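Sample 1 of the test manifest.
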Amino acid sequence: MPNHLYRLTANQVTCGIKNGQFSAQEYIFQILERIEKVDNKVNAFVLVDKQGAIEKALSIDKRLRDGEAVGELAGVAVGIKDNICIKDLKTTCASNILESYIPPYDASVIRSLKENDAIIVGKLNLDEFAMGSTTEFSRYGPTRNPWNLEYVAGGSSGGSAASVAASECAVSLGSDTGGSIRCPSSFCSVVGLKPTYGCVSRSGLISYSNSLEQIGPVGKTVLDVVMVMNSIAGIDENDQTTKPIRPIATLTSEDITKSNISSKYTADQNKRNITIGLVKELIEGADPAVSKCIYSAVDLFEGSDCKCEETSMKSIQYALASYYTIATAEASSNLARYDNIRYGFEYDPEGYEWNTYFSNVRNNFGDEVKRRIIIGSYVLSAGYYGKYYLRAHIAREMIRQEIKSLFERFDVLIGPTMPILPFKIGQKIDDPLKMYQIDIDTVIANLAGIPAISMPIGFSNSFPVGLQIMADDMCEQTLFDVASFFEKIVDVRRSPEI
Amino acid sequence: MVEVKIGLEIHCQLTGLNSKLFCPCQCDYQGEVPNTTVCPICLGLPGTLPLLNKMAVAFASMISLALGCKVQERIMFYRKNYFYPDLPKNFQITQYNAYGITSIGAEGKVDLGAKSIGIRRVQLEEDPGRLIYENADVNANFYTLIDYNRAGVALVEIVTEPDFDNPKDVRLFLDKVTSTIEHLGVCDIKLDGSLRCDVNVSLKEGKKVEIKNINSFGDVEKAIRYEITRQKTMSIREIEIKSETRHWDDARKVTMQSRTKEEEQDYRYFPEPDIPTIILGDQFISTIKTKMPELPDERKIRFLKDYALSDHVAKVLIDNKELADFFESTVKLYPSSPNEIAHWIISDLLGLIDDIKKEERSLLSGLRIEPKHIAELVKMIDQNKINRNIAKSVLSQITRTGEMPSYVLDKMNASLIDNESKIAEAIDSIFELEISAVRDAKQNPNAMNFLLGKVMQMTRGRADPKITLNLIKARLAKME
Ligand SMILES: [Zn+2]
């Protein structure tokens, strides 16, 4: 039995288990041991479901012994961001206000993962209600960057990226409202995907900003991300904003049902003649330590039959304002339900009059959440709706249109995922505006609804740098083709020493 | 005379649906154990998304068409944000037209004969849960219970233009809308709380006063009358009328200022991001049109034509679908005299129903009357087998016993034929019991009345007093 099973990719794990090289039980014990060993330093997990994980592993092993079929993700250790509901497991959004909330139902993505025999090992840290870019705003304390524990892991899905980078699980699910999957994936040197809006069901994702966010996978390789997507993507009757996916461009969804093609997406590494648009505004706005890394990657692409051209996206100047207006507006309404009547945390209402009790309850939100609720309520209020909310939507439409026209010329658009390298924990926490500004590169994809992936492209001063690739609406497959091609020519995969 | 402007907001629960507006829970919550017809979606649990019930859209489109509205091509939902313990998400998913008309129906017109009333919009929204106070005096409660069974039930809100200038037209309008909703089969109007109405009243150039909590449609008229008088009195005394929300006090029949002073609420409306914009194509609308049942106006025209009823008779029948259906079933059984049948239903049968039932619009429930009864009764009248007066008492008996008219009449006749000998029998036994009274009766007419009373008592009033008195007299005469 190999010694470092926990370091394997999801693809290696399922193959190894299905081929009998090792059992799901052996693998999951190593994973649990790994979590035990490193998570007190990384702080990626907020809850580890040891018992559930072991039971699932045993059932997979038994079915394999009995010659029964197992799912496509059989045995793969998956971590889940703690804003995605798992039946009978605490789901807190890293908030005091949901301290003792136990959902009575599975999110649709969780049901898919369970059906595909993934092993859910636990819940992962995040900024409270996914509001933040560093995972510092968590009731459980900050998640630390596995590459340097004094530094932020990025956010808000900090736990999702750090856990995969630290090999505490093979893949994970995060959620991405304005970069929450891609930012920590870039900071932790893993692959993270924000799918097209409507590609993955949001049913069971505790809403922050409904019109912007998507659940997406984080993995060590593009192939792992593809495998998870094949399990979770597609129309879901529990989310009426889901749309039919377009997996392989040449096939219609009818073909796929007819021919029983089980995998929806592939990671085809032979993609050639890619037309790449390098977004000028993004690269120019980046820290030189970051842009240098991106430029050297571009050189590599150009040397491999890709056509790379600099292009401008003027509407980017409106992106942040538009994003924060829409996100906070929706958040202020989404978070209104936390009144501790039906669920929440232990707080006896005895002796309180309703209004007092209600304000005391609401005082349990963290400062960043309060800030966004207040901003959101303001931009929606009677005199300001037209001035802020409607204009934010006009800007959003401009961005969407400009992106659309760019995809008439390019297969993909690229740029840095983050304009800066990871920074020290505590360094920006007191300056909300500076914190919001680091989302500039990622919010575009959320506003336009298009898919975007962040993949490791190199290191600068021993800190990871991520490349962001964006594709047109529902063109996940293009993204996977290009990303796996890049992955092959720019192989930077390493593991941090913890 | 001071001009008055009245507008209505009618809420109609779509009880004809199987499930709630945004989740699969059963929509019939009446009589269910509190908090049992609920699920994560209608409880607003974190992470749940609304799943629009397509049937509700179809029902609301039918209502819109029936009220002469244009069914919009682009339908959107909005969030109305406010905090209240009966509202699981602390926002209500509803529709909103301030940023372009996207409610299901808009710009309708309902014809009331002399005038027509504009329909501003017809929209879909979710009902909140219910707060339950164990003590009727709200302030005496130390806690409040919440039942979420009603939360998420589909409501159609019908908003009129302020086109009414008197309470009578309001009543006419409500009768017509109620009958329309009944004919569409989308709402069981007899269910408690399935149809609710808020009213706004203002004097010309005056501020708008909203009246809520009017539980019965009968009280709508009363509330408006009260409010008009109140506002007129105030304006005569030059007291400023404030724009406010008042509540109808059901017991005292007055409008009261709401205890909590409702400031101008800012609901922070914005489009519901979890429900995509719905495009209702021409095909959808034409399909709905073909599925529309016969509406009151069409039915009335048919009644006038097919049955040669008067306008008034047809209107009374059609204002209550139950009566109109009863009438048609009866005519089917006995097609010869539709007019006679109609008269028996709207004057004699309705005459037997008390006002409370009329208010509840549950006219025939509790009565054991069926169309076959009226059909036979009218046939007997036509054949001169029964006169009208006897027919009336036969009808009254049928409503209690459910017996066929011929059977009731036979029984009546039988008791009449037996009468004399039966009365004589009774007289015999009374004469044996009341010896002293019999003795007195020869001189004293009061004693004679006493004997008559005794006989009536014994026959439980079935004896004809005239015949009885004659028999007593004859009997006394014989004794001499
Ligand atoms: Zn429900």
